[in-house]
Design brief:
Blueprint: E1 3-8, H1 9-19, H2 32-46, E2 51-55, H3 63-67, H4 80-83, H5 86-95, E3 100-101, H6 108-121, E4 125-129, E5 143-147, E6 152-154, H7 156-163, H8 170-177, H9 192-202, H10 205-210, H11 217-226, H12 230-237, H13 259-269, H14 272-285, H15 300-303, H16 312-315, E7 319-322, H17 326-338, E8 342-348, E9 358-366, E10 369-374, H18 388-399, E11 406-408, H19 411-420, E12 428-431, H20 432-439, H21 448-456, H22 463-467, H23 481-507, H24 510-533, E13 535-537, H25 539-564, H26 573-583, H27 601-606, H28 613-636, E14 644-645, E15 648-650, E16 660-662, H29 674-677, E17 683-684, E18 689-696, H30 699-708, H31 711-718, H32 723-732, H33 741-755, H34 760-767, H35 771-784, H36 786-802, E19 804-806, E20 812-814, H37 823-857, E21 863-868, E22 872-878, H38 882-894, E23 905-910
Parallel strand pairs: 1-2, 1-4, 2-3, 4-5, 7-10, 8-11, 11-12
Antiparallel strand pairs: 5-6, 8-9, 9-10, 13-14, 13-17, 15-16, 18-22, 18-23, 19-20, 21-22
The structure holds a DNA duplex.
Length: 917
DNA sequence: AGCGGAGCCTA
DNA sequence: GTAGGCTCCGCTG
């Protein structure tokens, strides 16, 4: 059964303030009450409730003040030492991921009462965490009070034991006893015992009132005296359970905690146990949450309250309309024409845009107001839907009008879908996935469900909930219309709400806004076009290669079995381990991270001279990899409709700003070995066309020269020629023409290693020299290129100071684990920090180049951009246009950034991708 | 059927 | 030693 924990914030703050000694931190700030509350919150989280909230009083009068001017009139003002702890408390509560609820006009109790009743109706178990006895009136079979500070729980029996009355009698009980602290008038001389006695006798307050005459003695007079005020008192002590709220119990999921901010707050207020918990969690997961706000010095006051308060406009349930009539559709068409920003989403039959059919479209034009237009639900008994052709034809002018701004979540997919129906979407202005990605690429995944949870505290309907999962999953076209509407309209609605939550963040940092507006958003249609175009594959070439590879693999396999004297699965590292190290008794040189003797390439290479089996395995593996991943796979993935391979480019999955490619991954096609390179021969151009490949020469090293400003490195690049040779000449103190092959190899290893944040130890390993020698090389390198060392130091320092490093264009690259107590994790983070500005800037540059080249290609039909492989762009070009395209591509790639060194681009042209290199 | 580990391809 | 994606096995449901 799902559980909801409601925390009575004010009650805890007061109770902790009075119960704990007046602690303070090194700055002299009071921390006692905070400490108590933080411990209570941490204990609460350990219960892992599905839903939770921290409820506190909103500023301003409530309905009780209106009802009775004397209400709480004698309450002393909040002590300064307590007041000072309110803002930090809210900051910590927010950073822990609690939804904070503050509703004006009512007290926290009323919000808690209302949510408790609502949750109960939904079959949710409720725990009310409070130290306020008045709350006992809420207790029921599924509502229990918890007092974390005294570590007690109070259910129905507990209420009876403590008060001597049933929970439903608590209101009457409190009315009779009154409350001197809150200035609620009761019956004087009537304490808990008398109240319980009367209620036991007459059942209810009304019963007591009706029988007021029968009560004798002095106390009877007091009762009769109090009679006129009792109805008012009852109103005052009754906790409301019908407050109109913009959110419900199920909106109250915990958000992702902001560990970085927590660490800072805990450190500031010196909560050592809480800090230790954070460290333990970090060690366990190896993950540290990145701050989502401006990193650097964080003043708790700035980040408190509103950051985590559920914003009614962004978190309320939406109003979704299922559009099945022309009247409805025309009304929405009108809304779209008037909209400042159109949020749209498509529903289809497949996640592969190239094979998907459209099933429906949803729109949102304001938060909470969305529609779903079903177009292709075809289950038995499906209601009649609008004509797809008519709807798309009517929407086409809207989608294709660049002056009507549009918003999507991963809009590239929807653009591809609509393109299948002849609609060329123009005017994509925003994409919530990219907003989140540019804001902080690593704080969260950027799918809508994760974003809604993190930035809105909203739990979306999951696709699995409407369509099932695994083998039983049905197509969206089989989902009933009402369910489909809830799901699909929510997608458009949440996209819009996410935009409202994320855009102000981006807009507040000019460099990030520029990266988003000038790089990521314009890149969307460019990538979409590349995916749709696809690349032509020669299936016959691949099939022939598969056969040849298979034949040679079989031979190797038979030889291996003969050597091992029995059959075994060459693809199984585990079986191989047994054969090599147990049966044949070979000496294992390396271990896997899990402690098993390793059978990876390096380990087999190391024992290849002691037995013939390792070499057979190595040969077999390289062939198996080629066949399973490339020759078999690629020919099977050719789209039958287009005869081409259509990859997907991912704009939101690489921490440094690169794009990645999958289904298939065209960014890891072999190139280093002769056999591998043959696979590239299958990437061809149509008859009369050529493949043109253009790649940046040493782009990351050039960026290092630019960023570091190191004179030696700048000179080397300005001189042109072989930079590794130039480096070797400097490091080894010989003229460039006398540099030996080994010297150049060492220099190249240093150049690359430095960009990966390498240590002398790593270089020694790479070059197979001892550590002293490697460290000697690095010493000489840094003495020749002192600017490089300074740059690396500065980068590490910036990473520690800000939690992120930046690219040339100001993209922020957050680092995880920089403050880890685990040395390995921390050093890993520092290496990543050193590499990130170079890898990230290179990514920015090629993205800018792609946008520029695509703009130039826009109205041409003699060349298409097909692939991006990090520092390389691949095109198909009609033979008569090759020279012109080559010049234009080089010009735009070289001109994609103004660096302190030239950006050199090498171009090759050929009948296939291999020849074009 | 889904998942983690091992291994290996790219820049 | 940076950044990814894909395939296989072998385990768990």
């Amino acid at each position: 059964m799902a559980k909801l924990i409601l925390i009575d914030g004010s009650s805890y703050l007061y109770r902790a303030f009075h119960a704990l000694p007046p602690l303070s931190n090194a700055r002299g700030e009071p921390t006692g009450a905070l400490f108590g509350v933080v411990n209570m919150l941490r204990a609460t989280l350990k219960a892992k409730p599905e839903y939770l909230a921290f409820v506190s009083d909103a500023p301003g009068p409530t309905f009780r003040d209106t009802l009775y001017a004397q209400y709480k009139a004698h309450r002393p003002p909040m002590p300064d030492d307590l007041r000072a702890q309110v803002e930090p408390m809210l900051a910590i509560v927010g950073a822990l991921g609690f939804p904070i609820l503050r509703v004006p006009g009512v007290e926290a109790d009323d919000v808690i009462g209302t949510l408790a009743v609502q949750a109960q109706a939904l079959g949710i178990e409720v725990l009310v965490s409070t130290s306020d006895k008045d709350m006992a009136q809420l207790v029921s079979p599924h509502v229990t009070l918890v007092n974390t500070m005294s570590n007690t729980m109070m259910d129905r029996d507990g209420v009876m034991a403590k008060f001597g009355v049933r929970p439903e009698q608590i209101v009457d009980f409190l009315t009779l006893t009154g409350d001197t602290v809150d200035n609620v008038p009761g019956v004087s001389k009537c304490g808990p015992k008398t109240a319980a006695k009367w209620l036991a006798e007459y059942g209810t307050l009304d019963g007591v009132i009706a029988n007021a005459d029968k009560v004798g003695g002095k106390i009877g007079e007091c009762l009769r005296e109090a009679l006129p005020l009792l109805p008012l008192s009852r109103q005052l002590v009754t906790i409301k359970t019908d407050v109109p709220l913009e959110f419900g119990p199920t909106d109250l999921a915990q958000r992702d905690p902001d560990t970085a901010q927590l660490r800072e707050l805990y450190a500031r207020y010196e909560f050592k146990a809480a800090l230790k918990d954070l460290d333990a969690a970090e060690q366990a997961t190896g993950i540290v949450e990145q701050p989502t706000g401006e990193a650097g010095a964080v003043e708790p006051a700035v980040l408190s309250g509103p950051v985590a308060v559920i914003d009614a406009a962004l978190s309320a349930p939406g109003d979704y309309e299922l559009v099945t009539t022309l009247t409805q559709f025309d009304a929405w068409l009108e809304r779209l024409r008037d909209a400042e920003l159109i949020a749209f989403d498509t529903e289809t039959t497949s996640i592969d845009a190239m094979r998907a059919d459209i099933v429906g479209i949803s729109f949102a034009v304001q938060a909470g107001k969305a529609c779903y237009i079903p177009l292709g639900h075809d289950y038995p008994g499906a209601p009649k839907q609008l004509d797809r052709h008519h709807v798309l034809a009517a929407l086409k002018p809207v989608f294709e009008d660049p002056t009507r701004p549009k918003l999507g979540q991963h809009a590239k997919y929807d653009i591809n879908i609509l393109s299948n129906y002849g609609i060329a979407v123009q005017g994509l202005k925003h994409d919530s996935m990219l907003e989140s990605y540019v804001w902080n690429a690593t704080a969260t995944r950027h799918d809508m469900d994760s974003l809604a949870k993190k930035y809105l505290g909203y739990e979306t309907i999951k696709y699995e909930q409407v369509a099932g999962k695994g083998a039983k999953q049905i197509s969206f076209s089989q989902v009933d219309l009402d369910t489909a509407c809830r799901y699909a309209a929510e997608d458009a609605d949440i996209t819009l709400r996410l935009h409202h939550a994320l855009w102000p963040k981006l807009d507040s940092v000019p460099a990030l806004r520029k990266v988003y507006e000038e790089i990521e958003i314009p890149l969307v249609p460019v990538l979409a076009a590349m995916e749709q175009r696809g690349v032509l594959i020669d299936g016959d070439v691949l099939r022939r290669q598969s056969q040849q590879l298979g034949k040679r693999m079989l031979e190797l396999q038979q030889q291996a079995h003969a050597v091992a004297t029995h059959e075994f699965n060459l693809d199984s590292p585990k079986q191989l381990q047994t054969v090599l190290f147990d049966e044949l008794g070979l000496q294992a040189k390396l271990k896997t991270p899990t402690g098993q003797p390793s059978t990876n390439e390096e380990a087999l290479e190391a024992i290849a001279d002691t037995h013939e089996l390792p070499r057979l395995i190595l040969d077999y593996r390289s062939l198996a990899k080629l066949r399973s991943t490339y020759t078999d796979k690629l020919s099977s993935i050719v789209n039958p409709r287009t005869g081409r391979v259509h990859t997907s480019y991912h704009q939101g999955s690489v921490a440094t700003g690169r794009v990645s490619s999958s289904d298939p991954n065209l960014q890891n096609i072999p190139v280093r070995t002769e056999e591998g390179r043959r696979i590239r021969q299958a990437f061809i151009a149509p008859p009369g066309w050529q493949v043109l490949a253009a790649d940046y020469s040493q782009i990351e090293l050039r960026i290092m020269a630019h960023l570091s400003g190191d004179e030696g490195l700048l000179r080397a690049f300005h001189a042109g020629g072989d930079v590794h040779r130039a480096t070797a000449a400097e490091v080894f103190g010989v003229p460039p023409e006398e540099v030996t092959t080994n010297q150049r190899r060492a220099a190249k290893a240093i150049n690359f290693g430095l960009m990966y944040g390498m240590s002398a130890f790593g270089l020694a390993r790479q070059l197979s020299v001892d550590r002293g020698e490697a460290s000697d090389y690095m010493g000489r390198y840094f003495s020749r290129y002192p600017g490089v060392r300074a740059f690396m130091e500065a980068t590490r320092e910036q990473a520690h100071r800000n939690g992120y490093v930046e690219t040339i264009f100001g993209r922020r690259l957050y680092l995880e684990n920089l403050t880890s107590r685990n040395q390995g994790l921390r050093q890993g983070a520092e290496r990543a920090a050193v590499n990130a500005p170079m890898q990230g800037s290179a990514a920015d540059i090629i993205k800018r180049a792609m946008i520029a080249v695509a703009a130039w290609l826009k109205d041409r039909d003699d060349a298409h951009m097909l692939m991006q492989v990090h520092d390389e762009l691949v095109f198909e070009v009609r033979a008569d246009a090759v020279d012109e395209v080559r010049a234009a591509v080089v010009e735009r790639m070289s001109g994609a950034a103004e660096l302190a060194v030239p950006l050199v681009v090498d171009v090759g042209v050929g009948a296939n991708w291999d020849e074009a290199h």
